[in-house]
Amino acid sequence: MNMPSEKLPEEKLLLRALAGEATPYVPFWLMRQAGRYLPEYRELRKKAGSFLDLCFSPELAAEVTLQPLRRFDMDAAILFSDILVIPYALGQKLDFAEGEGPRLGPFPGLKDFHDFDIGAFDKKLQPVYETVSRVREALEPDKALIGFAGAPWTVACYMIQGHGDNEFTAVKKFAFGNPSGFDKLINTLVEATSRYLIEQIRHGADTVQIFDSWAGLLPDHYFERWVIAPTRKIVDNIHKVFPKFPVIGFPRRAGQLYQPYAEKSGVSCVGLDQYFPLKEAVHSFGRKVALQGNLDPVLLLIGGKPLESALHYILKSAENAPFIFNLGHGVIKETPLEHIEQLAKIIKTHQR
Ligand code: CP3
């Protein structure tokens, strides 16, 4: 008899979908599945002190990673951390003011990755790797563990702007005005992110997601240069160490540029936001990559009939495709727990 830890990775539904199989049941997880909508998260968050303290306390971060699975039996856990730990590990000041989102210190400038203190970089991220190991240990063998990082473009947006925004005009001014200088920042982030993701994989991540939340802000030729090309390099760097390792790419709001992203970035799976029609994705690039997405988080917020019919529509749209159910963006913090129970029940009992 197999001991749980000896189970093959193929037994994880999520990995089967990532490998291109239209699985008999649709695996699911939710972006921001660990977070403020969960009372047990809010409680632990209070105990931890700051948000960064929570990210860098392996025992607490592992606990938070596992919390949503205990309630809703998702097919995967996503590491609890944040995309902004990369600028932090590169030496940029970072804190999360209560109710205000991230605040970063002055931009460290356009330096090559090797001009940073790499020893300090590795050391600062060590607790994250320990969290990955702990979750790996604790996780049931049929559940996948998702590591993640922000994509270079999205992380650069926060590094230059210093805080969240909807347009990042200051960043675009900087990048369009000095594209070859900006390439240097992107290349630094490619190196840092590759190193970070490879370490997560070494510590037990089954797949990694690259969050490019602000990909949709770039016009097409810059999209090729600062979204597709850097993603491709990160995927290639991962594949040099772990050939064929499945990577999920999430170029949010990429619109028509989803297609070239799917064709050229090298990812195994493309995460769709709620604005891209899933049916169209299945037809145009659903044979090249697996798809993930794409319920509007507001439908989960309101629940009931509208949620139910949206779920059936999504399941029907993805009928014979390798598909992972998710939201089009993160869980909204006011979302009632019962609506996630309703969602889990419908997805988990739907047989294809
Ligand atoms: O998905 C998960 O459950 C894993 C954990 C996770 C967090 N952030 C925890 C978090 C992940 C994958 C992220 C990614 C992230 N972080 C992104 C990409 C995805 C997206 O949302 O577009 C971005 C842009 C960030 C940067 C960031 N972190 C912002 C803008 C904020 C403030 C907004 C907010 O919701 O408060 C954060 C804080 C953050 N990251 C929280 C959590 C649970 C809330 C902090 C708290 O508990 O006080």
Mean pLDDT: 96
User: What CATH architecture label applies?
Assistant: Alpha-Beta Barrel
Would you give the CATH topology? TIM Barrel
Structural class determined from secondary elements: alpha/beta
Total helices: the number is: 15
What bound compounds does this protein have? coproporphyrinogen III
Strand line-up in the sheet with most strands: 1-4-5-6-7-8-9
For the termini, the CA-CA separation is 29 Å
User: Main sheet, how many strands, which sense, barrel?
Assistant: 7 strands, parallel
Order of helices and strands: HHHHEHEEHEHHHEHEHEHEHHEH
Quaternary state reads: single chain
Mind telling me the C-alpha Rg? 19 Å
Number of domains: 1
CATH class: Alpha Beta
**What's the number of extended β-strand segments?**
9
The helix fraction, in percent, is 40-55%
Your description of this structure?
- The chain is α/β, with parallel strands linked by helices.
- It has a single domain (29-289), classed as TIM Barrel, CATH 3.20.20.
- Helices cover 50% and strands 12% of the residues.
- It has 15 helices and nine strands.
- The strands form two sheets. It has a seven-stranded parallel sheet with strand order 1-4-5-6-7-8-9.
- A hairpin with a 3-residue loop joins strand 2 (94-97) and strand 3 (101-104).
- Helix 7 (152-161) packs across helix 8 and helix 8 crosses helix 9.
- The radius of gyration is 19 Å and the shape is globular.
- It starts with 12 loop residues before the first helix and ends with a helix.
- The model is unreliable at 1-6 (pLDDT under 50).
- Residues 31-36, 45, 51, 78, 80, 82-84, 96, 101-102, 148, 164, 211, 213, 330 line the site of coproporphyrinogen III (CP3).
